Structure prediction request, 140 residues.
Amino acid sequence: MLQSLSLITLGVADLPRSRAFYTQAFGWSPVWENDMTIFYQMNGFLLSTFPQRALEEDMGGRPLASQGAFSLAHNVLTRGAVDKVIARLLAGGATLVRAPDEPPHGGYRGYVADPDGHAWEIAWMPGIMPDADGFVTMEV
Prediction:
């Protein structure tokens, strides 16, 4: 099977609030949207936001956990950019989960949660650097 990721869908409580966070705090532009979903073109896949209740219904009525055992990551080009991006996200409605620090494996990272509690790691990790188009490849 091809190792690929096509789409990540985040269940949100308030679609307009989520849109404001991702467009204003992250500065991302939707590529398509309607009153039920918003799609953001990422580097090789799509990120969408969808009302949580509608997502649960779409999945056959299965209730979604309010906090999943995952985090999303946004890697930046410099160590200093971690603090700047986190400050911008906090000003846009994120909640600080972990202040930036140096993990044992190297680099510099911190965690925030979007207004719906989805965890985002903001990281500068030598060896896992985005290229000019935002694609990340692990150098081993």
Remarks:
- The helical segments are 15-25, 52-58, 79-91.
- DSSP finds three helices and ten strands in the chain.
